[in-house]
# Entry
Amino acid sequence: MKITVAAVLLSMMFAGANAQSLRSPDGKFEMNFQLKNGVPFYNLKYNGSTVVEDSKLGLRLFKDTSVTFASEITKTEDAKFDLNNDFVKTSEKRDSKNETWQPVLGEKKNYINHYNELAVTLNQNSTDRSIVVKFRLFNDGLGFRYEFPQQKNLNYFIIKEEDTEFDFPTDMKAWWMVADYDSQEYRYQETNISEIPARWDKAFDSNASQKLVKNVVQSPLMLKKNGKESLYINIAEAAVLNYAASHLEVDAQNFKFKTHLTADRQGAKGYIQTPSVTPWRTIIVSPKAEDLMDSKMLFNLNEPTKYTDTSYIKPTKYMGVWWEMIIGKAQWAYSTADNVHLGVTDFSKLTPNGKHAANTTRVKEYIDFAAANGFDGLLIEGWNIGWEDWFGHSKEYVFDFLTPYPDFDIKILNEYAHSKGIKLIMHHETSGSATNYERWADKAFQLMNKYGYTSVKTGYVGDIIPRGEHHYSQWTINHYYRIVEKANDYKIMVNSHESIRPGGESRTYPNYISAEAARGTEYEAFAGNNPDHQTILPFTRWMGGSMDYTPGIFQTKLDHYFPGDKRFVKTTLAKQLGLYVTMYMPLQMAADLPENYAKHMDAFQFIKDVAADWDDTKILSAEPGDHVITARKAKGTENWFVGGITDENKRVYTVDFSFLDKGKKYEATIYEDGKDADYIDDPQSYNIYKKQITSKSKINFKMARSGGFAVSIKPVK
# Structure
């Protein structure tokens, strides 16, 4: 018995001598790092309670840089090449920072970046290789990454897998979607961690490009610990640059997750030349859902921009020749042909299909409406040749991004748009052919400069070319940022679709103004979005940056166009207005057709008035999967906007306007669900009224099923 006690005490002393602790600036978080028999582990506590149990760190590597990888089967003899064991700590360095910085575009005028840092240098005895594990502990959670200094025995290497773990002590509720190397456009699921494997096979539908990863989920992942001391936890990643995007393997029985990087066709997950760093792994934690949603940790973990001129980067409200193609009323293609060759086919001699939306006459109608209602831009999809056989043929030379269809007069339309104060927004669909886009990018951006286009929507529908790469593999992520950097050379803002989800990189690349990278409004015309979808996205997809969600659909029933069509947008009209506030979108679209807005100009007034860039944001109330209520103050003004949305359940919420300046009077214009509103039975029922309010005011809002409200607030002068 004495020997056992002595052994335990000795073990505790040894562990303490080899453990390093780090506390957050406010002292509420504690991170502990230690080596156990040469294997690195970390854990995380909040107010003394364990959030993350001891979790392994490390990477597995391929044995050299020339092998052809047939699979990811781990061979015992290859283990000696891994960077996950046989470590000793050689040094540690501590640092801290407390700074305030201003995003070029953002949810607040100022972001606070306050953390304490611990960098631990580890040496692997058997190979004489060193790595650094760097931890930053903020008042809202933990970020950490691996760093690889240049050294004799670690100049070039190839990653087989990164094995960072997140081991939780209890089963928790999770909001998750299936992992896929090529798509994030799936419905969110709400289950406990332990229930994920049973639901996984039923949690996805088909997609234009799809490489599913069994029993793996995507990040950001939202979790909730229920009980007397409930906690909200978000696992994500930041600064995903020159590295593959990560997913999370599920150990449902032990409530554990492990990173799973996106592979290329050889099974390689990263080609590294030192010195180099990985993305930051992030764990955001809060007892309040509102505070977690308000976290800016992912942005803080990115580097400040090196751009010398950001004056061209501006919030943009736009309309688009788009929704009518999405619902099937019109087409992107000009002709009836099904096989075209760019540079050979004479498109003027092809038979028009009669449904081409991007024609000069129709585009002028959009320009007129957008200009009359104060919009900044107009997106036009299907303007350029090649749409006849653009998808599904693995065709590399699919677009040239220069040549308009015969019925689209680019010069006249630009002159017409500019005469009315509208800038056209270029559309560059690549059909996944990234190599082709890189060849044409300079000429395409030069054309944009010539005609005064200041922003571009890029698209990556379909399998990536070079063939065998994926949308989230290292090569393709590098492609996205090569395009963003080139766009900056031409003073162009980028909005990418079917691309990598953002992890705060807009701090470094502020012209990367928005991205899709999730299931957006277009799916309302496809397989549909669940009524709770928009209440989950702010806790997941939005944690690292803006999404081009394309809201504003007023004509929600598609049988309006096609009698008997059962498709419909699963929200009320008032909820569509609320989305403009609950979802941060500096590139903000009014996605419906002009003729549908013309029938509801009183409700459309909110879309005209709402801002797209902000001095302040306050999350008034939120619960993932249930509701989101947000207030925002417009940049450079005293105007506020409030938006609220709910899931499939009716909900009553009382807005407390104490965030307004005391002693001031304001006029509030209120847009709410009508008495009989229902997203299925009566989605276009709404009520609008004005009311004078102060900081002492409180207003009750009754939200219909999948309903919402919006409030525009201006000081009374």
Remarks:
- The first strand starts at residue 19 and ends at 23.
